[in-house]
Specification:
single chain, alpha/beta, Rossmann fold, Arc Repressor Mutant, subunit A, 2 domains, five-stranded parallel beta sheet, 11 helices, 5 strands, 51% helix, globular
């Protein structure tokens, strides 16, 4: 199937560059361009995009608000948002992940990294390096007072619904490990790991793997560590 991609960025030149790159691939096509968040949400619905490349800072409705609207719309449950950012460490990126984005990608990334990100997001996985996403989330959550009541009680309670093995897998996912790496550690098959991950996502209400990482930290199951 062809991956339908929507480009949301207020810089027309950047959108044009992304369009040429994406349209050059046989398995994906650009179905629309948006210059602000509100237009991105509208076009995502109209064009039935699979993946939205979303800039954070745009006039009017920004990328963060647009990501929240897309992730909150049941009709767009299968849409994946890839946050594009100029800054590798940016609080808005973490907020976007919390809002439902599948991950983030620096605007200075290589073309192949962008294409891989689109395919990875369309497949429902966390973007590129899970460890990079994990490290970013941990860095910001570590700045919060762990005793300030920032944890989500509801999510903490939902952890009780996980089996011991599902909790174990969740901790490893939050540690940035791939399914293959987790399978090797636990001496099970990658398919078994994928089953545990999918069950944990269903029980915790996570859209994808990146959201699982956020939940693991916000619920207190995994404590942030800054090296």
């Amino acid at each position: 199937m062809t991956i339908r991609v929507l480009l949301a960025d207020d810089q027309a030149l950047l959108r044009s560059a992304f369009r040429v790159l994406v349209d050059s691939e046989p398995d994906m096509e650009v179905v629309g361009e948006a210059s602000d968040g509100a237009e991105a949400v509208r076009m995502t619905k109209e064009q039935r995009a699979d993946v939205v490349l979303m800039d954070i800072r745009m006039p009017g409705t920004d990328g963060l608000a647009a990501t929240r609207m897309i992730s909150a719309d049941p009709e767009l449950a299968d849409v994946r948002v890839v946050i594009l950012t100029t800054f590798e460490v940016d609080d808005y990126v973490v907020q976007s992940l919390r809002a439902g984005a599948s991950g983030f990608l620096g605007k200075g990334s290589e073309p192949e990294e962008l294409l891989t990100a689109i395919r990875t997001a369309a497949g429902g996985q966390a973007l590129l390096s899970p460890a990079a996403t994990t490290g970013l989330i941990a860095r910001f959550l570590a700045q919060e007072d762990p005793d300030a009541g920032d944890r989500d009680p509801a999510r903490g309670e939902r952890l009780d619904s996980l089996t011991g093995r599902e909790r174990e897998v969740l901790v490893l996912v939050a540690g940035g490990h791939s399914n293959d790496e987790i399978a090797e550690r636990l001496e099970v098959s990658p398919l078994t790991v994928k089953t545990h991950v999918n069950r944990a996502m269903a029980k915790l209400g996570a859209r994808d793997r990146a959201q699982l990482v956020v939940i693991a930290y916000e619920s207190g199951l995994v404590r942030p560590r800054v090296e």
